[in-house]
């Protein structure tokens, strides 16, 4: 990329995940999403550089990353589907067990090895799914046996999409619909699904191995809860134009001691963590005046950035996750304007 402000993959992934909850993915095509992403990237970079209007990331530039955007968008969609099916809640329960099993190992170390909670947590998958993925050759398998295989959901999703594209299983008239071939039908026991319902078929094969009926019941319950919340909000006088900005749609997390010391808050959603870090950088004038993309780390910031003496506005994103120790109930966070 010739544009010096063009984000690296980690930063672009973060920006995609920020944008997804604000867009109706079911009715937004990849072209329209990429145009929205170009504006979002430009707006964020300008905001982080004192409103510098010379910074611009165009749709044409992002088109060169179209496959990456498609892949990350697919993962983001499945993550949203998992949350709507209550998958995140079950992950939180599993986190407690994980901590007990690895007592004495610092949480930071566990997370850096990919052992943290959430959708990146490695969980046991069914023998049937393990056999399919091994034969398909789309996911690196951790052992020779198909029994007791543990994989992260994100790896499963990316692997399945690699297989789907390789075998051209997307409906040409509706790219969001997947028409399963013989091997996938054998694994998932259905003729087709779409990118939104695909998560449920994956969940059946991932520990704790819920049945499809259980997943549908959980989704129905969550839908009713959302409808009840909307009705309550309407009664309390909240209009469509005055949305609740409590967490911006993002779940709050309990922060590490180092991050809490830097931001002065113990619980925050990720967008507020990022905003808080940038507020700290600007108030302490830590940007390199000759290269605004470069950040000099003082003692406090260095402890959050894995003891680095300097980072870039893009590389800093990869250090944030390990300081978001535990997802907490939304009631523990109150948004402050």
TrEMBL record:
Regions of compositional bias (Acidic residues) in chain numbering = 84-102
SUPFAM superfamilies assigned = SWIB/MDM2 domain
Q: Which CDD domains match?
A: SWIB-MDM2_like
Give residue spans, biased composition: Basic residues: 219-245
Q: Which InterPro entries match?
A: SWIB_domain, SWIB_MDM2_dom_sf, SWIB_MDM2_domain
Q: Which residues form a coiled coil?
A: none
Pfam families to which the protein is assigned, alphabetical: SWIB
Region Disordered, as annotated, extends over 81-122, 218-256
Q: Which residues form the DM2 domain?
A: 118-208, 248-326
Gene3D superfamilies (alphabetical): SWIB/MDM2 domain
> In its UniProt entry, what is this protein called?
DM2 domain-containing protein
**Record organism:** Craspedostauros australis
């Amino acid at each position: 990329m010739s544009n010096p402000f063009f984000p690296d993959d980690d930063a672009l992934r973060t920006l995609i995940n920020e944008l997804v909850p604000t867009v109706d993915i079911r009715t937004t095509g990849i072209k329209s999403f990429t145009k929205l992403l170009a504006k979002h990237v430009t707006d964020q970079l300008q905001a982080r550089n004192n409103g510098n209007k010379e910074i611009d990331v165009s749709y044409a530039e992002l088109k060169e990353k179209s496959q990456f955007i498609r892949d990350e968008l697919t993962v983001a969609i499945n993550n949203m589907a998992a949350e709507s099916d209550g998958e995140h809640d079950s992950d939180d329960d599993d986190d407690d067990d994980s901590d007990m099993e690895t007592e004495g190992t610092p949480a930071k170390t566990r997370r850096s090895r990919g052992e943290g909670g959430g959708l990146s947590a490695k969980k046991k998958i069914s023998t049937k799914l393990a056999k399919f993925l091994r034969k398909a050759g789309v996911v690196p398998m951790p052992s020779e046996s198909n029994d007791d295989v543990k994989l992260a959901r994100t790896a499963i999703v990316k692997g399945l999409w690699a297989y789907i594209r390789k075998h051209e299983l997307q409906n040409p008239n509706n790219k969001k619909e997947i028409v399963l071939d013989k091997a996938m039908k054998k694994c998932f026991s259905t003729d087709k699904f779409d990118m939104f319902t695909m998560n449920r078929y994956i969940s059946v094969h991932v520990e704790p191995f819920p049945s499809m009926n259980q997943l549908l019941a959980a989704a129905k319950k969550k839908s009713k809860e959302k409808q009840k919340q909307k009705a309550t909000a309407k009664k309390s006088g909240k209009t469509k134009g005055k949305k609740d900005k409590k967490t911006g749609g993002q779940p709050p997390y309990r922060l590490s001691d180092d991050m809490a010391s830097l931001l002065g808050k113990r619980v925050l959603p990720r967008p507020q963590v990022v905003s808080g870090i940038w507020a700290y950088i600007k108030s302490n004038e830590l940007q390199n005046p000759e290269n605004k993309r470069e950040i000099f780390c003082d003692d406090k910031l260095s402890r959050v950035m894995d003891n680095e003496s300097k980072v870039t506005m893009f590389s800093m994103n990869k250090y944030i996750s390990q300081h978001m120790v535990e997802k907490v109930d939304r009631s523990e966070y109150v948004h402050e304007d």
